[in-house]
Structure formats: structure tokens, C-alpha cells
Specification:
about 35% helix; globular; Nonspecific Lipid-transfer Protein, Chain A
């Protein structure tokens, strides 16, 4: 998904969001269930985003969702139940696994980072 590849650049344009994640340093797996990305986050910045699988690459937690879930989540105004990362897991459209401490301790950061493509999607005229 091209939207994921653009998240680091969108994050670089959001200094308040970087500031919110300033204490976060972790390796994680994020993205579509079938083609996730390894993300290296240091001081709230995504310094590396590499398509998986990468042999022997460590990750502390994983948040992966279906393509349908990401498409709905990135709508300008997502429908109820599709608007939140944890709501997607409750719908069984997303999987959260591993050591959840960094994810839960920085939950609002991850919600906002993963929603960045929402405000940068092209609108289709009716």
C-alpha cells in the first residue's frame, strides 16, 4: 500500500506529533495483514520503513489490518466501528500482537500517525 510508504514524510510535517512520541523508541510491524512494514521509530520519528518480510528482523509488537479496514480508516470521516485502531481489532479486521506495552503507552501517537493518510487522500468529485 502506497499510503504506508508516505507516512514517514507526513509525520515529518507534523512536529507536534513527533513531540508527542519523543520518548518512543521501538521496532514494530505495521500495515496490511498480507504486506506489513517493519518500522523503526526513534524519538517519535519513523527513521526506517521497510516492506516485510525481512529475514531475522526483530519487532516488539505488530498492528496489522485488512485492506478494507485501512481504506475505511483513512476516509475523511470514517464510519463508526471503522474510526479507531482498537475498534478495528474488535471487528476482527485488525490483529494486535506481541509486547503491547509500547503500543498502549503511546496509543494516541499511533492512532494519529496511522491516521495521517486520512487528511492527504485525494477527494473524488461526485
Amino acid at each position: 500500500m502506497g499510503a504506508f510508504a508516505g507516512i514517514p514524510a507526513l509525520l515529518d510535517q507534523a512536529p507536534a506529533l513527533i513531540l508527542r512520541g519523543r520518548t518512543l523508541d521501538c521496532e514494530c510491524l505495521l500495515g496490511p495483514i498480507d504486506h506489513p512494514f517493519h518500522a523503526s521509530i526513534r524519538g517519535g520519528r519513523i527513521i526506517d520503513l521497510t516492506p516485510a518480510p525481512v529475514l531475522m528482523r526483530y519487532w516488539r509488537f505488530s498492528y496489522r489490518a485488512s485492506a478494507v479496514a485501512w481504506a475505511e480508516y483513512w476516509k475523511p470521516v470514517p464510519r463508526p466501528g471503522w474510526h479507531d485502531l482498537l475498534a478495528l481489532t474488535k471487528r476482527e479486521e485488525a490483529v494486535l500482537e506481541g509486547d503491547l506495552h509500547p503500543f498502549m503507552a503511546h496509543l494516541q501517537y499511533f492512532k494519529d500517525v496511522l491516521a495521517l493518510p486520512r487528511s492527504h487522500r485525494p477527494t473524488v468529485p461526485s
